């Protein structure tokens, strides 16, 4: 009887400490995995491997922008977070229009160059290679 009480008093703190150490170790692993996932996502986004879709106000040459044609455009984030200002006019006379757009790479607050293609339903822009 005495031996049994002695064992339960000795092992109980050991089990508590072991369980606590395991929980702390698992928490550390979860945090590390989250940081790695975020780093991979940020790297892929910076490299232009992730699409971002939304509305864009597009300025293009008044002579027109044919379907399938590629233009070099500068993009900048607009006043509202969902808006992008896309200038493909190259400084010539221009027309403006709001269209759906997909950007392969995040559009920053500072001007950034993209190579954009007009399709029948949207503008698709990629970071230059």
Characterise this structure.
The protein is of the alpha/beta class. It folds into two domains: 1-46; 51-126, no CATH class. Helices cover 35% and strands 35% of the residues. It has one helix and six strands. A hairpin with a 6-residue loop joins strand 2 (70-77) and strand 3 (84-87). The radius of gyration is 28 Å and the shape is rod-shaped. The model has no long low-confidence stretch (mean pLDDT 81).
Q: Layout of helices and strands, plus pairs?
A:
Elements: H1 2-46, E1 51-61, E2 70-77, E3 84-87, E4 94-104, E5 112-118, E6 123-126
Parallel strand pairs: 1-3, 4-6
Antiparallel strand pairs: 1-4, 2-3, 2-5, 5-6
Give average pLDDT, whole number. Answer: 81
Side-by-side strand order of the widest sheet: 1-3-2-5-6-4
First-residue to last-residue Cα separation: 78 Å
Unreliable spans are none
* Assembly state (oligomeric): single chain
- Work out the helix count: 1
Helix content: 25-40%
> What overall geometry do the principal axes of the alpha carbons give?
rod-shaped
């Amino acid at each position: 009887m005495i031996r049994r009480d002695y064992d339960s008093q000795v092992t109980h703190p050991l089990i508590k400490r072991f369980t606590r150490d395991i929980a702390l170790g698992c928490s550390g692993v979860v945090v590390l995995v989250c940081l790695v996932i975020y780093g991979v996502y940020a790297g892929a986004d910076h490299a232009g491997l992730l699409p971002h879709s939304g509305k864009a106000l597009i300025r293009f040459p008044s002579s027109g922008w044919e379907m399938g044609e590629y233009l070099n455009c500068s993009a900048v984030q607009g006043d509202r977070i969902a808006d992008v200002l896309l200038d493909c006019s190259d400084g010539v006379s221009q027309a403006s229009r709001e269209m759906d757009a997909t950007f392969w790479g995040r559009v920053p607050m500072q001007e950034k160059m993209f190579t954009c293609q007009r399709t029948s339903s949207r503008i698709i822009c990629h970071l230059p290679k």
